[in-house]
Amino acid sequence: MKPYRFAGQTAVLTGAAGGIGEHLAYGLAQRGSDLVLVDVDAARLEPVAGRIRHAHPGLTVTTIVADLADRSAVEGLGTRVLAEHPQLGLLINNAGIALGGRFDQVSVEQFETVMNVNFRAPMLLTHTLRPALTAGSHLVNVSSLFGLIAPPGQSAYSASKFALRGLSECLRSELADDGIGVTTVHPGGIRTRIAESALVGVHVPEEEIEPNRKLFAALLSFPADKAAEQILRAVAKRQARLLIASSAKAPDLLARLLPVGHARIVRALTAASGSRAKVVQH
Amino acid sequence: MKFIDVRGTRLRLHDSGDPAAPPVLLLHGIGRSLEDWSCQHDLLGDDHRVISLDMPGCGLSQRLPEPTTLDSLAGGVRAALDALGETRPVHLMGNSLGGAVAMTMLADTPERVSTLTLVNSAGFGKEVTIALRLLAVPGIGRRLLTRIDSRTAPRVERTLFADRAMVTPERVATAIKIAQQPDFVPVYLEIAKALGGFRGVAAPWRTTLLQRVAAHPKPTMLIWGDRDTILPCAHLAAARAAFPHAQSHLFGRTGHMPQIERPEEFAALVRPHLAAGPPADLPADLPRRSSR
């Protein structure tokens, strides 16, 4: 497959208002792509679009505010984008949410919300926009380190990211027949607002919420702009799989060396860092 | 099209539009001529005085007595503006080598520049087509340049555009006519030698020039074509780093000369830039890269 060329093509990007998505938007604009930027957070999305329109007046930048947890919103989004852009260069399913708490501490409704945003939305959007992807187009699904390993406390997030990875790897093979590339991305701890905006299980004790959030945030150390740059480079090369940061690469290696045994190590590490956070707290 | 005498050197120039309107000065690339800007004369002429010229020793202009360098070209162009009586600040626009000449003029006389537009400009990296690097090889350069004829000229022209349909008989005829001018080969070789060698575009002049222009920030537009085979579009990132306040645009399916290959889009892109420049209250650059 030929390298992906960004200039003069249209890219659809979800979760564009912050984190990796915001920097993907800047990087795509610098590479000459017209943009359809999607996010639930209108207040953060508009300044991102405004900065791009100002720095790159030759590009067409459309913003769409949509809640990807809502099935009909995703369907409406897909239908609108398809009508306005019958031909797309790139679709990046980047938006995602996290949920803190053990399986018995989260409600079924919360579990489903995570699945809906992290898995159902990309599935629906890709399904609706599939006709707009033609030979030479490219699809990116941002899974996670937790699409490779499933540590305790990440049941919904891991389930959704494993599901997205499965879909993405399957599509990689299916779409290759039509000359469409697919990249599955597994970021490790990237410095974004995901910890801040994470849902918290309804049965998580009050006193555990803040320490857990802080612990989670502390693990997010890799800069989001570098992560976005790596993703766009992987797209250009049509790379199948991209792991970002050593916090993704080391656990991935461990999981492949010890397909079963790695879980015990991950559990021990999680427990250790959890107790460390409690010490810090006191 | 007219010829003017500038310090004893006969220069060809194209001066169109309303003489009282803000002036735009268009500079061509190495071995090229003012014909590279003819579409933009029509597209920008409504509300600008549009001036393009064959730089000294290029196109149908005579050469300067001294060896051709960026400084001599910038000096010659400035003298041409004086001869035209155009002493107002100009909107400078340069393609390829013309971009480096424009930056040199900005560094020398910032008060004479209102905005800067760089189009697939030299100055942002060492990578350059092998055809230009070969000019530095003794014996080869002269031989290559003296053999531009009806057989080779279409091949050279094709390297400049993404779309082969751009290589019209008129463009080929112009290229051959220019290559037959007495000063063509020596001036071409002098410029190539001044700017680089077989290893590519030399670093010292680029570094110095970019440092000098950084002291005089002007509203700047950086434009490239993503299929440029002469100066790769990867140089656009370096250009953005050198001009952090600049606006930029990368054209898809476009080669070394977007002003010819995307004339209307090009004019639509630069027109607001010439009219206003970026508003002062908004930094044009996106958040800078983190240092990690």
How would you sum up this structure, described in words?
The complex is a heterodimer of chains A (282) and B (292). Chain A is an alpha/beta fold and 282 residues long. Chain A has a single domain, classed as NAD(P)-binding Rossmann-like Domain (Rossmann fold), CATH 3.40.50. Chain A has helices spanning 19-30, 42-55, 71-84, 108-129, 155-176, 206-219, 224-236, 246-257, 262-281, and strands at residues 10-14, 34-39, 61-65, 88-93, 99-100, 133-142, 181-187, 190-191, 199-200, 222-223, 241-244. In chain A, the strands form three sheets. Chain A has a seven-stranded parallel sheet with strand order 3-2-1-4-6-7-11, sandwiched between helices. In chain A, helix 1 runs parallel beside helix 2 (42-55) and helix 1 (19-30) crosses helix 7. The model of chain A is unreliable at 277-282 (pLDDT under 50). Chain B is built from twelve helices and ten strands. Chain B is globular and about 45 Å long. Chain B starts with a strand and ends in a 17-residue tail after the last helix. The A-B interface holds A 5-9, 26, 29-32, 51-52, 54-59, 223, 225-226 and B 226, 233, 236-237, 240, 247-254, 265, 268-269, 272-273, 278, 282, 284-287, 289-290, 292.
